[in-house]
Amino acid sequence: MTSKIGGSIAKGAAWMLGFKLAEQGIGMVSMVILARLLMPEDFGLVAMAMVLYALLELLGAMGSDIFLIQKKNPDRHLYDTAWTVGVIVATVEAILLAGLARPAAIFYEEPRLEAIAYCLAFALFIGGYKNIGVVAFRKEMEFHKEFIFMLGRKIAGFLVTVPLAFALRNYWALIAGIITANTASLILSYLMHRFRPHFSLTGWREIYHFSKWLYINNFLFFLGQRAPEFLLGKMVGAKAVGLFNIGYEVGTLPLTALVAPINRAVFPGYAKIANNPELLKRSYLDVAAAVAIVALPAGFGIAAVAELLVPVVLGNKWIPAVPIIQMLAITGALGSLLTNAGAVYLALGKPHYITALAAIRVALLLPAMYILTTQNGVIGAAWAALGTAVITAPVEFALAFRTVGVRTSEYLICIWRSILGTAVMYGAVRGLITAPLFSNFTAPTVLLVAILLGFSVYILSTLSIWAATGNPEGIEATILKRLFQRDQTPTISMRE
Description:
Blueprint: H1 2-37, H2 40-60, H3 64-70, H4 76-108, H5 112-127, H6 135-139, H7 143-168, H8 172-192, H9 204-235, H10 238-251, H11 253-272, H12 277-314, H13 322-347, H14 351-376, H15 378-404, H16 408-434, H17 443-468, H18 475-484
């Protein structure tokens, strides 16, 4: 049974990773095109409006999907209740956002925000009617269906946003893409799952009892993720918001593209083995090793090549975003190591742990963000994010280790080779970029060489360290088995 779950989780992680790679591939192509067609102010305007959108969306999110996945054999009435609550909440959110459109435009002294907010209110309304039946894709670990569903939404938005960007050359292309993506998600949810929800509120108490901590957590998450855009929009302006927004998108790419899909896949598996502490512990360590081996080199790699990546890929007008990307890439790499614990807390029915940690982060982030933004503008906001992540990391690791029953030494054994390999890679890439030998080469050439060098050095150094320590069992052994012995059962997160 455990190996079957382990295989399902490994395959699920692979499907979700495949989706994220495809999504981020589309997203990167879109970002490169849009960054060259639009101005930082265009991205900033949309980001400022999305502050309200995200706040209402998060405050209204009851975590019904998490509840249905975590609960053993939920009845139909719970699915119907989850859908009904979603419809009601989305309608209220849309009305509130429309009502806040003009006050927001006055607050930011930006009249264009009013029309943008009206359009985003419509997008919120559409999203509330999505078929709750698609939650079963994750609950039953049918991640290939989840892959198609999520990728279809992304492609629909891309196919509208990019052509409109060429035609309009302004922020309305971004707004149209958001509305299209939500509409596509609604249509696909009913095409891909035969469940047909009915209006019902019979199970609202049970859902609310589980979700009450998530309400608080959602608000804290909003403060942590959207505070920079709110403060920068008011204190510095739309251009600064645009720079920070793009810096965040690029800098946290490892977290969103590589780690988030793994966590999305392992949560249902954790929920199935939550009553087996030893298996949960082993699973947590396996996933931690898998996260570290991809997220650390990706994060520090982006930081190493940012000064070349930005002008070559995005254009010279985005060069002020380089230090932002570098700091947020390191922030994202550190955060990647911590996100695995959140899935464990939810699987164990302890969402209040997530809320407590979020409260600590926000209590440190907001004053630091205000002080450093006042003194240093958008760069100060990036420093505040990085400093908060470094200060809170020991507390977050300590809680995770205590909850799962992991010793610090056990955790370090799983990831230390990835840490050392990343350090070697970072040094090699920075040495190449600053070497006088390459001073006469074009930036695209040096960037390509740096990426190839970084990838090669990381692989070789990590495998060399692994071999020098006696080929121990771990993520390296698992990857090699999967590469060279096709009949092996996936072992990314569950072992006998």
